[in-house]
Amino acid sequence: MGFLGGLFEIIGFGIGIPIGLFLGFFLFIYFQPRDVKKEPVMKSLSGFDSKSMVDLISELPVWVMNPDYERVDWLNKIILDAWPYFDKAACGIIKSSAEATFAEYIGKFKINSIYFERLTLGNLPPKIQGLKAHESNENELVLDLALIWAGNLDIVLGIKFLSLQVSVQMVDIQISAATRVVLRPFVPTFPCFSSIFVSLMEKPKIDFGLRILGGDIMSIPGLYQFVQEVVARQVAKLYLWPQTYDIDILDSSLGATKKPVGILHVNVVRARQLLNKDFLTTSDPYVKLSLTGERLPAKKTTVKMNNLNPEWHEDFKLIVKEPASQLLKLQLFDWEKVGAHDYLGMQVVPLNKLVPYEKKEMNLDLANSMDPNDPHNKKPHGQITLEVSFVPFREDSIKFSGPSNSSGNGSSHESTSLSGTGLLLVKVVEAKDVEGKHQNNPYATLFFRGGKRKTKLIKKTRNPYWNEEFQFVLDEAPTKEFIHIEVMSKRRRMGFMFKESLGYLDINMADVVYNGRINEKYHLINSRYGIIHLDIRWKVI
């Protein structure tokens, strides 16, 4: 047995070593460790079958399927670095805004208190899969964002109900949304836009977990789909385009151009007991009218020769932009044939004292100035009588008339025909590719009803940017008239002025009147590539 046992040991050792090496090699080659991640397998799209492609398309970034969208990895990097700070700021806003909502429910349904036990958006920021910028003729920038967020937020709401305390927790949110962000209007104050408007272009896809007292209620059959659909529908109802969520960045008064909101009708009736500034004869008075905050030339009455008690009965229309703060300024002068005109007195009328649509007759004592400490105000300067009424434009009438008057005046506003008094606003924004044969110093001229208006001249450019607006107060709608706009260039050489036409355009005012506004780019006639951008509005009172 000893001999046989030794023999078997030798044979087993000789056979076991090769078998062990073979099995070890086999296990090493064909069985990889489970804790080691496999390298991703790269495969072209043409290598997938149709069924796999259908499942794969929904996972592709939007910039792959839509060439109009751009990759914005740099923007996602900024969001990633700024996310911890945004988390704190957003949670602070959520807490402050939710306090008012919580206060409405305290005391109702036996609820004693509602508070946040934990509130964080997590450390996983949303990602922008693609960005698309839209061309717009408006004073705005329109961006479409493909937004996804698979966040690890943790929001725990504590509710004290009778003697019980209930915890409601939201976790693991997933959002996919097509978002539109509009920056407008552009203003000459940093960051160069005053507001952000956010809206959804389609119903978003929202998924999240909801736990009450530690139990996942979303696992209840039928409840999961119901809750997700209700939440997505309510969010879409609030912010689906054209609804917007508005974020004010700057005060609207900073750098923003005020828009006309109505017309001030002024009838200068008469003046009494004016100062006599002439030595041998009596004064030759006239009145200058203007609104504060305007750069437009003042309007003037006719001159009444040798008269200290003149009668005018002359009507004027002035464009109002800020009725809450603007003043009607009246200045009287003694006309002189030679030299400066002598000053007779002045007075102001605050527009906020006027009731819209009501004509008010005023008898005002003239003064030397509005300074209460001016000693010259003690001397009588005479009186002036005028009739004043402020009439808002139809689109702004509700803002000034209020709820109580809007219903009463509504029928009269709607019955206003196209022949009513209105304001024509012509804004010459810019021109592109205007080229002259000998010079490129472009400016635009407007010809309308025998009048001529002109923008500033910009030297040595084919793409001038003017952004200048011209205003015409008209007694009736210009439905049968045209406005002629011509881009010119001029230069002075050897003491002579040389002018050259770079293109022209005629706009039918009937299109503006019936549409209310036209904001378009037009090709210039007699110009090879020239384009001009015009924004024309018609506002009726």
Report Rg. 38 Å
Distance from first to last alpha carbon: 126 Å
Please summarize the sheet with the most strands: 8 strands, antiparallel
- Structural class from helices and strands? alpha+beta
Mean pLDDT, rounded to whole units? 82
How many DSSP helices?
Answer: 7
- Share of β-strand residues: 35-45%
The low-confidence runs, each spanning 5 or more residues with pLDDT under 50, are: 403-417
* Structural shape: elongated
Number of strands: 24
How much helical structure, as a percent, in the residues? 10-25%
In terms of quaternary structure, the protein is single chain
Q: What does this protein look like?
A:
- By secondary structure, the protein is α+β, with helices and mostly antiparallel strands.
- Helices cover 21% and strands 41% of the residues.
- It has 7 helices and 24 strands.
- It has helices at residues 2-30, 50-57, 62-65, 73-105, 223-239, 397-414, 509-515, and strands spanning 111-120, 127-134, 141-161, 164-186, 193-200, 205-212, 215-216, 245-248, 262-272, 285-291, 299-300, 311-320, 327-334, 342-350, 360-365, 383-392, 422-432, 442-448, 451-454, 465-474, 482-493, 496-508, 517-523, 531-540.
- Strand 4 and strand 5 (193-200) form a beta hairpin.
- The longest helix is centred in the N-terminal third of the chain and has 33 residues, at 73-105.
- The radius of gyration is 38 Å and the shape is elongated.
Give a topology summary.
Elements: H1 2-30, H2 50-57, H3 62-65, H4 73-105, E1 111-120, E2 127-134, E3 141-161, E4 164-186, E5 193-200, E6 205-212, E7 215-216, H5 223-239, E8 245-248, E9 262-272, E10 285-291, E11 299-300, E12 311-320, E13 327-334, E14 342-350, E15 360-365, E16 383-392, H6 397-414, E17 422-432, E18 442-448, E19 451-454, E20 465-474, E21 482-493, E22 496-508, H7 509-515, E23 517-523, E24 531-540
Antiparallel strand pairs: 1-3, 2-3, 3-4, 4-5, 4-6, 5-8, 6-7, 9-12, 9-16, 10-11, 10-13, 13-14, 15-16, 17-20, 17-24, 18-19, 18-21, 21-22, 23-24
